Amino acid sequence: MKQIKITLANRYRLERYLASGSYGEVFEAIDLKTNQHVAVKVAPIKRSNTLQVEKEFYDRLQPRRGAGMLKVHFFSQECDDYRILVLPLLGPSLKDLFYYCEERFTLRTVLLIADQVLARLKFLHSRDIIHRDLKPANFILGRGYDGNTIYLVDLGCALKKVHAPGDPMHYGRNREDRVYGTIGYASKAAHMLQCQTYRDDLESFGYIMMEFLNKRLPWEDIESTGSQSKEELIGQMKEQIPLDDLCKIESDGSENSENSENSDDPIKPDDSDVFKKYFEYIRKLRYNQRPDYTWLQNLFRLKFRDKKYKYNHVYDWTERKFEEFKSALPEGAEGTDDAGGADGADGADTA
């Protein structure tokens, strides 16, 4: 990656470029005061106030922030012509790990992910914050001993839900000026420019789960026509697609691999039912109704138990990393004590 040596705010020495987005750029840096590695978001002041908005939402989650929620280390609007937001440095995103696992997660891994993500959304929504841009890149694993914790990040598109007496929408407006979020994962209401609420974040996460299971979403190949935009056509498909088609799991045989935790229990036709029930529940929610997150978690936990999966925090990427480690060992070394075993794959550092 690109190596750089710039110090911001006389404290954060940028070490390497990590990513970029509409808000600006992200760098790995060293805090010269603590010698810790951190993530620094940098955005031109003239471009937008996204970093300031994100910082304010992170502050709303304090104190007693839940697991998988970040704490701001530092924020400044007076760093030359830039805003900078300093956050803890995390590990790979679920998007990174999805590609690492050849763009498909097993049912077992998706159920484990769902349990954590629903806990994050429950906490975020308890503070009346709607994320509005859920996507695989915005779920990032921790590092080291925190390597199995999924963090929910990037609150630059979030919205504070205002409870206004007499306003049935609980907002000062009931229409948006554009579709907020990433089009592929945006809710049906977002496509209709309706103000988003709790159920919209849950719907977006439902689409993410189906992509993880099937490599792709049904509307991935849609292109604009002369009369309609891609955005409009995707919104129409989300309205029209039957849940049986949306929630169908296409098995590619990965659940039957010789070394997989799931080798004795392949995908069955009724495994799709749990996701269909998830979407049915969301679609029945009234606009301002708070979801029963515990019920949703138990829905997936029951499927996990029915499949007789082991609850040992071994995800697909953990197994894959462990198999790569074993294949790299000298011939005959695999059976030694030092090589470890299935338990060795459970270390947080393998994320």
From TrEMBL:
PROSITE patterns named in the record: PROTEIN_KINASE_DOM, PROTEIN_KINASE_ST
Top EC class for this record: transferase
Gene3D superfamilies, per database record: Transferase(Phosphotransferase) domain 1
Domain of life according to the entry: Eukaryota
Positions of the Protein kinase domain: 12-296
Coiled coil: none
Gene Ontology molecular function, alphabetical: ATP binding; protein serine/threonine kinase activity
Pfam families, sorted: Pkinase (PF00069)
Keyword field: Kinase, Transferase
Segments for region (Disordered): 249-271, 328-351
Enzyme Commission (EC) number: 2.7.11.1
The name this protein goes by in its record: non-specific serine/threonine protein kinase
